[in-house]
Amino acid sequence: MGKFVGRNLELALMDKTLIPPDKATRSRRVVLHGLGGIGKTQIAVEYANSRRKNFSAVFWISAKSEEVLKHMLAAFAERIPLQDVLDSSGQIIKSNDGLERAYTAVKEWLDLPDNHRWLIVFDNVDKHQPSGSGRDDTKIFDIRHHIPGQGNVIITTRSADLRRLGEDIEIENMSEEESLQILCNASGVHADEEGESHHLPALQHIHFVHI
Ligand SMILES: Nc1ncnc2c1ncn2[C@@H]1O[C@H](COP(=O)(O)OP(=O)(O)OP(=O)(O)O)[C@@H](O)[C@H]1O
Ligand SMILES: [Mg+2]
User: CA 173 to CA 165: how far, in whole Å?
Assistant: First the structure.
């Protein structure tokens, strides 16, 4: 993976919601939305890594499908750890309802009073649809069923429909300089501080590169 470039404005906007000076608010959510490949997941990764110390725990959930989401959320039972859903070796009990129990236990843990300083990223929430909306794509699910009622949440999505779930940050194309910087990093060509490459003048004509 190449080095993260730019997006300072977006990261600062996320700070405003997720690390406010007033710590009283118990539920804070940011929705990063924009086109496929524009850089939403990268911003969330950079945020989670660089702000790790501001949170009691950071959980990363791929929300590509409801099944993967539930597995990943349930797996936190091993990290927290929640004894009554784990076997003697500290793994989720392998029974028919083991996964469901672990999922429920983690959700309950996330809702405990005074436990709201964690950060969860729900990444790639592109199969969301409100329940009962009648679409017959079986992969569609309602993300709202899985979002805890407190704590800090980042959602990345291609869907503008999810904007209302939190502080909406629209992710747009990077500047020409930033795109050029990514390209130079990927190709190993040196660029100076303004992101200008003296070796690849042809690159000046490439706008909005996404790798
Ligand atoms: N700020 C950045 N710095 C460096 N590389 C980046 C940056 N943003 C995006 N990229 C490059 O672009 C690729 C696509 O970005 P990313 O996966 O974040 O897009 P996305 O918006 O989450 O797309 P999707 O909607 O398909 O999930 C990354 O794998 C990375 O190579
Ligand atoms: Mg993504």
Answer: 23
pLDDT digits (tens, 9 = 90+) for 165-193: 999 999 999 988 888 888 888 877 665 55
Nearest to 11 by CA among 53, 57, 56, 42: 42
Say how far apart CA 35 and CA 38 lie, in whole Å.
6
User: Does the beta carbon of 157 sit less than 6 angstroms from any atom of ligand 1?
Assistant: no
Global pTM reads 0.85
Tell me the per-residue pLDDT of 115-132, one tens digit each, with 9 for 90 and over: 889 999 999 998 877 665
36 lines ligand 1 (CB under 6 A): yes
CA distance 94 to 88: 12
Q: Say if residue 203's pLDDT is above 50.
A: no
Atom index in ligand 1 nearest the CA of residue 157 equals 25
Structural domains of the chain sorted by starting position, each given as residue range(s) with its CATH number in brackets: 8-170 (3.40.50.300), 174-211 (no CATH)
